[in-house]
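To illustrate the input format used throughout this study, we show a single complete record. The first block contains the structure-token representation of the backbone; no residue identities are included at this stage. The design step must infer an amino acid for every position from geometry alone.
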């Protein structure tokens, strides 16, 4: 029995190495403005490029699934550490919850999990998975991909703790000088849907403040007053 406990203790303290399997190309070039959960911004499309060591056989049959689980690393906050208590935005940033009761990126191992809509798979220039409804930063390292199985993983009647349904959305207005007429419908939708999620810190409410968000190759400026967001301009990012 003593020998068993020694072996068990050795195993639980063992260090493991996880290798990335690919990376993400995303329109979100900075953390600010990314949807806080997957699926909230349907127009947010990404491409997951698998490493060259993975061939078409690795994704054979995956095209028959509508959604995939994407396991990834919150690489944008690796240097920021973690804390046992965090302030979830859904609680206005005023209440603390245990880190394991939240989906905060500031976690002991900085691992993330997103359920994304699988739009298509291409194999002509490496294995690429095209997904929508994404909440991932550009260049996010991906460590695993699994198919979503509804009858196993969908629990619509499960208790959701302090999270009561989808978050409220802001009304979106475009300033007449914003340059909206020069944008494609898809890109304008991406901007509108992203800002509608209210990307501000939960504690911040400064109507006169101009916020700046980098989306694609553009710099987006906007203001938020009450439940309305006004998009002021969409311009190419300065070199």
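Output of the design step:
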């Amino acid at each position: 029995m003593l020998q068993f406990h020694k072996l068990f203790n050795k195993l639980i303290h063992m260090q493991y190495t996880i290798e990335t399997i690919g990376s993400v190309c995303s329109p979100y070039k900075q953390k600010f403005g990314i949807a806080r959960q997957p699926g909230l911004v349907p127009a947010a499309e990404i491409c997951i490029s698998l490493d060259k060591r993975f061939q078409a056989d690795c994704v054979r049959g995956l095209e028959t699934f509508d959604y995939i689980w994407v396991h990834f690393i919150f690489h944008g906050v690796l240097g920021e550490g973690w804390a046992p208590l965090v302030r979830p935005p859904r609680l206005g940033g005023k209440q603390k919850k245990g880190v394991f009761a939240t989906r905060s990126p500031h976690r002991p191992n900085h691992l993330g999990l997103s359920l994304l809509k699988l739009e298509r798979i291409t194999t002509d220039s490496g294995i690429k998975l095209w997904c929508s409804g994404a909440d991932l930063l550009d260049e996010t390292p991906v460590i695993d991909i699994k198919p979503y199985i509804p009858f196993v993983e969908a629990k619509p009647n499960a208790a959701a703790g302090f999270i009561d349904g989808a978050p409220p959305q802001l009304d979106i207005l475009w300033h007449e000088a914003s340059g909206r007429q020069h944008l494609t419908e898809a890109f304008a939708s991406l901007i509108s849907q992203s800002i509608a999620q209210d990307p501000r810190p939960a504690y911040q409410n400064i109507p006169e403040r101009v916020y700046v968000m980098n989306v694609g190759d553009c710099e987006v400026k906007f203001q938020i007053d009450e439940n309305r967001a006004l998009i002021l301009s969409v311009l190419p990012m300065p070199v």
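Structural context for interpreting the output: The chain is about 10% helix and 30% strand. Residues 185-196 form the longest helix (12 residues).
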